[in-house]
Design goal:
The protein is mostly beta strands and 216 residues long. It has a single domain, classed as Porin, CATH 2.40.160. It has three helices and twelve strands, in the order αβαβββββαββββββ. The strands form two sheets. Strands 1-2-3-4-5-7-8-12 form an eight-stranded antiparallel barrel. β4 and β5 form a beta hairpin. The longest helix has 17 residues. The relative contact order is 0.18.
Length: 216
Amino acid sequence: MSSFIRLIPAIFCISSIVHAQVEVKFNAATALLLIPNAGVELGISEKHSIQLDVLGSFWDEMPLLNDTPFHLSQTFLEYRFYKKEGLQKWFIAPHVGFGMFTLQKPNYLILYDYYNEAAGGNSGGGLPNDDTYQSGRVAFYGLTFGYKKKLNTSWSIEAFMGLGLSQSWYKGYKGIERVDYLVDGYLRPFNGSGEVLIYKGGLMVVYKLPYVKNLL
């Protein structure tokens, strides 16, 4: 009996999920660059939802980034607040995310870099003028802003952009040679950086799964 009582919260959770609005989506904008980005959105009320989305890039040489590597994986979990019922129109969503990367930092996406500016540098601009790149992992904490437009009962399109604080730990390379900063004559195990930047966005094509009920 006690085991059944402990299962009650899980039963209510599953019951709410199978009665919820579920949408699957694919980013048409990143697909043009052969970078898949897909997500699943689960409605938990008329104006609130939870979304999980993932992105992966597998370029060994990216033409838009000085032909340097562009290997990237990102996973985001966000809680969405919509203006209109049915998960439509304008929305805002706090999120957290995690990623792994091997790429050349695109400086034009950086909005604010405290450490670089404190050292007298400039966080803006384009890309470095060499073939250096960084490899490591990163955590994201920020907000997604967007607008979803319903096309018919099954399909919608969604424009969105995500920005916030990124905290990364990485090693610097030029080819296969480490080019990190030296500390007392030795390479650092990892470098660290933190910036406010734009790190996700695009145009999602959204499909609403057929409504499922009375599964339990």
